[in-house]
Specification:
The protein has helices at about 10-15, 30-50, 55-65, 70-80, 90-100, 125-130, 165, 185-195, 220-225, 230-240; strands at about 115-120, 135-140, 150, 170-175, 215-220, 245-250, 255-260. By secondary structure, it is an alpha/beta fold. Helix 2 packs antiparallel against helix 3 and helix 2 (about 30-50) packs across helix 4.
Length: about 290
């Protein structure tokens, strides 16, 4: 008679729901390749949609899914933002706030901490989250964590002017989000929309408020440094017409970081910005932002 082997009891950890699935480790080169390919296919899909080419759209969407779709892209993005690879863009923001003395006022804000809306959130353990400075709200098109709400920023309800003080934010983070939008007009609409979620500027603001309300914007460096349709001066002009002033900037080989302080409550764009070539050259990319 065969002897029955005793089954080992399950570990308690194996019965708990997984909060976030840890993706298999990818090399830095592979991570960059996945992100670039996904962005390229999305841009091509947007172009095919605009041209009404349904066959091309279906083919491109098939390629996106064959490459792992949004989930694979998110896996690569999460690893690209890992602490081990120095990819947490919010560290730059926290350095700026600390340098301005803002973080030192954490104790004074225990009852009403500044509110941050993080659009396109992939992690809940980045520098801003760990700082304890902010009352965080995180959203993403495809949530991978129960603390990240699945929501499209462009469909998010705009705070009512009467209750805006309660539901508005002191800072909105768009870190590598605007470049993910495949259409230049939609990029402009996204930037226009941010101001409607920010608190109105306090005329009697103290030092701890000197950088709020604001927009933390991160883009791939080539979007500004090597585009035929956008450069630093043009971006600054765009943001100025949306009532922002640039208070901080950091440029690296891969990324450009900005902190834009919101100075007003304009609902209409005071000046339109079309897609026009301002920096010719075959080696330039086609990244553009259109404001109407």
């Amino acid at each position: 008679m065969a002897i029955k082997k005793k089954k080992r009891p399950l570990l308690l950890s194996s019965t708990r729901p997984t909060i976030i699935q840890k993706p298999s480790t990818l090399s830095s080169r592979k991570t960059r390749s996945i992100v670039r390919t996904h962005h390229t296919l999305r841009k091509q899909t947007q172009k095919a949609l605009a041209q009404g080419d349904r066959i091309a759209v279906a083919d491109l969407q098939g390629k996106i899914e064959a490459g792992g779709g949004l989930r694979r892209y998110q896996d690569a993005s999460i690893q690209g933002q890992s602490v081990e690879r120095g990819g947490d863009s919010s560290k730059v923001l926290m350095e700026w706030l600390s340098g301005a003395g803002v973080a030192a006022y954490t104790d004074l804000w225990e009852r009403q901490r500044p509110r941050m809306l993080e659009v396109g959130a992939l992690r809940v353990d980045n520098a801003c989250s760990r700082s304890g400075l902010f009352d965080m709200e995180r959203i993403d098109l495809h949530s991978r964590h129960h603390l990240i709400k699945e929501q499209d920023f462009m469909q998010r309800t705009i705070p009512d002017p009467i209750t805006a003080g309660t539901h508005a934010f002191d800072i909105v983070s768009l870190s590598l989000v605007v470049n993910f939008v495949g259409d230049a007009v939609e990029r402009g609409e996204m930037l226009k929309r941010v101001g409607r979620f920010l608190r109105q500027r306090n005329k009697h603001a103290s030092r701890r408020d000197n950088l709020f309300p604001s927009l933390f914007l991160v883009l791939p460096a080539p979007c500004v440094a090597n585009s035929r349709y956008l450069h630093e001066e043009r971006l600054e002009e765009m943001m100025k017409t949306l009532s922002y002033i640039k208070v901080r900037k950091k440029m690296t080989a891969k990324l450009v970081y900005y902190l834009w302080k919101y100075e007003g409550q304009k609902n209409d764009v005071q000046r339109a910005f079309k897609k026009e070539e301002i920096r010719p050259g075959e080696s330039r990319n086609n990244f553009a932002i259109i404001l109407r």
